[in-house]
Design brief:
Layout (H helix, E strand, L loop, with lengths): L2 E2 L18 E6 L3 H12 L3 E6 L2 H10 L4 E5 L7 H11 L4 E6 L4 H10 L4 E4 L4 H22 L19 H17 L8 E10 L5 E12 L2 E3 L1 H11 L2 H19 L7 E5 L9 H13 L6 E6 H5 L3 H13 L2 E7 L6 H4 L6 E4 L1 H4 L5 H16 L3 E5 L4 H9 L4 E3 L7 E2 H9 L7
Parallel strand pairs: 2-3, 2-4, 4-5, 5-6, 8-10, 10-11, 11-12, 12-13, 13-14, 14-15
Antiparallel strand pairs: 1-3, 7-8, 7-15, 7-16, 8-9
Helix pairs in contact: 5-6, 6-7, 8-9
Length: about 425
């Protein structure tokens, strides 16, 4: 039976805490006596405590509420606590996850610790001081990760060796703001706050529009939020899958509306590494394409260079499934890392998008040589090359002289709203800028 603690303001022992900035802790244990004892001990620390007697109830809590730290017993009926925490790590990768048990299972625990599925293992009966310290450390960790996700600096605290203090009001104010946005992102797909903008990808020979890149935008309750910030928060808070599913549906809807008038142009969409952790994305892409009657090649899934380099078997399998469907696969921001084209040759990618850092070097002889070699090698691998970040006519001319045939950037067009693209079509602009 799921038990939720009373979380009125009087339940918090730390003076700086408010109801909105409560630190949320989930206790999962099938022993009601253990749950009561842990609640009594930890409520004094100022946490908002949720509890569950089994892992299914715990999963419902995670789906409904933003939980910051999980303290889970290993010996749960039907399903081990460590298996529950592994699944939680996939959906909520930056959550604090602590395992507690009356029996020490060295190999299994060591493997989970090395994989990052759990962050701490504790024995029963517990030492109160050590338990409280470990949970405080877990909360400090997630405050720092929220700040990193939002590109904010966590205020240092000399009493904690430069780490954020559990009672640091400034840090927790920032944490509360980031978490509020994280919670909003869970409902953004259904509340009208998401939008896509479309940046044309242009043929360098004739300015023909050959495709678009769909770029996600979010207007939160407090105003627009930069993609860098809200994408990181969505990944951290478990909302990324919902955003990606919305993007796939919206892209397919626009593709069906626009592409017949744009000579088989394609629309690219970016996906997160988290999207490739299970089969939900591939299944959704396949279903949505079928529902809209689109050929799979109408959309191109873009992954970053670091994702392309990932040798994780499951990730590569899902990229292979997308390729088998006929969906285009592009490596985005190529050149920002150290990817080998010989390695890429073994992967099912169809498009190489050069990072803007290479584009900025086009006017330098050495930079132009590097781009020329990449374009040549990509052509030998039967891959299309798109030069990103073209901002001047000179850059466009140099890219054309080096053999590149497609480009994208503000020189051609800034990202456009769907209404603006529809206006282009209605005005008979055809497939050219």
């Amino acid at each position: 039976m799921l038990q939720i603690a009373d979380v009125r303001k009087r339940d918090f022992g730390t003076p700086c805490m408010t109801e909105s900035s409560a630190r949320r802790l989930l206790i999962v244990d099938d022993d009601p006596g253990v749950r009561r004892a842990l609640k009594r001990l930890l409520r004094k620390e100022g946490y908002e405590i949720h509890s569950a007697s089994d892992t299914q109830s715990a999963e419902r809590v995670l789906e409904r509420d933003t939980i910051d730290v999980i303290l889970c017993d290993q010996d749960m009926p039907g399903r081990k606590g460590i298996e529950f925490l592994k699944d939680a790590a996939k959906k909520y990768p930056h959550q604090g996850r602590l395992l507690i048990s009356g029996r020490f299972q060295s190999d299994e625990v060591a493997t989970a610790l090395d994989a990052g599925d759990i962050h701490k293992f504790m024995m029963k009966p517990w030492d109160e001081a050590i338990l409280k310290a470990d949970i405080r450390a877990s909360f400090r960790r997630i405050v720092s990760e929220y700040a990193n996700a939002a590109n904010q600096e966590v205020p240092p605290n000399s009493a904690t060796n430069g780490r954020v203090s559990v009672d640091d009001t400034a840090a927790w104010t920032e944490f509360d703001e980031n978490r509020r946005m994280s919670r909003e992102l869970h409902t953004a797909a259904g509340d009208g706050s998401l939008a896509l903008q479309y940046q044309p990808q242009v043929g360098l020979e004739d300015n023909a529009i050959l495709g678009f890149e769909a770029l996600l935008r979010w207007n939160a309750s407090t105003g627009p939020v930069s993609p860098e910030r809200f994408i990181a928060l969505a990944e951290r808070g478990g909302a990324m899958g919902k955003l990606t599913h919305w993007v796939v549906g919206e892209v397919c809807h626009r593709a069906k509306q626009w592409l017949p008038l744009w000579n088989d142009a394609k629309i690219g969409l970016n996906i997160s590494p988290i999207d490739l952790r299970d089969d939900a994305l591939v299944n959704h892409v396949e279903t949505t394409l079928a529902e809209h009657g689109l050929r799979p090649g109408s959309i191109v899934v873009e992954v970053t260079e670091s994702q392309a380099l990932c040798r994780d078997t499951q990730t590569l399998t899902r990229l292979g499934r997308l390729a088998d469907l006929g969906v285009g696969l592009a490596i985005d921001d190529f050149g920002a890392g150290a990817t080998s084209l010989s390695y890429i040759a073994d992967l099912p990618f169809t498009t190489l998008k050069l990072d803007r850092s290479l584009t900025q070097q086009l006017e330098d002889d050495k930079g132009a040589t590097v781009v020329s070699k990449i374009v040549e090698m990509a052509r030998d691998l039967d891959m299309q090359t798109i030069i990103e970040g073209i901002e001047t006519e000179q850059q466009a001319q140099i890219a054309r002289s080096l053999g590149a045939n497609v480009a994208q950037g503000y020189f051609f067009s800034k990202p456009q709203t769907r209404n603006r693209v529809s206006e282009w079509i209605a005005a008979g602009r055809g497939g050219k800028l």
